[in-house]
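Mods, move this if it's the wrong board.
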Amino acid sequence: MFVFPRSVFLAAALLSSPRPEAAPPVEILDLPIPFSDARTRAMLEYRRTHEDPRATDLSIRPRVIVVHHTAIATLPASLHAFERPFLGKDRPHLAKQGAVNVSAHFLVARDGRIHRLMPETQMARHTIGLNHLAIGIENVGGTKETPLTPAQLEANIALIRWLSARHDITHLIGHHEYRRMESHPYWREKNATYRTAKRDPGPAFMRALRERLVDLGLSGPPSGP
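Not the wrong board. Structure tokens:
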């Protein structure tokens, strides 16, 4: 059994919620990834390079939720991928655009447990062009051998409802849909050549999410290929 390397706390889902009636409580395990001074400086440099040269901090006002999968089989290995402060040599294309490691706000295990890795009002590096206003939800797995599970679907539904009650969320997209947001006013990316091809979490998972969340009235990406 995996033993968490740091203290785990139950998060009360209704704390500081401006609209608690809009979503039921959600059990969230706080499992913060390390954000050293060096990582914070590198993340701020990334923000200045790609979004706002005048930025002085990493605060964001979330408007978009982006759903991802890790393509890594286990929770410990997925968590480990986010813990290091800087990118390794295995991701040279991303490293050329900024040394700071990728990150996300939430990580959902295959059994449906929700882990919060960082505050949702702090900028993470997870989606080109949208990091300045997007909350990233990562799901463990997503490969042929470790497909996303019904428990993860239910957890994502509950988490998105909770986040929508706490923040002025207008859009819900899958990572594979992010480039269709280039035509939207939310998009900010100063480097016109900095793009990646993404397949996560896939159309089927997003379709299932949207069918269950239609009452929230969240927009998807603009129409496009």
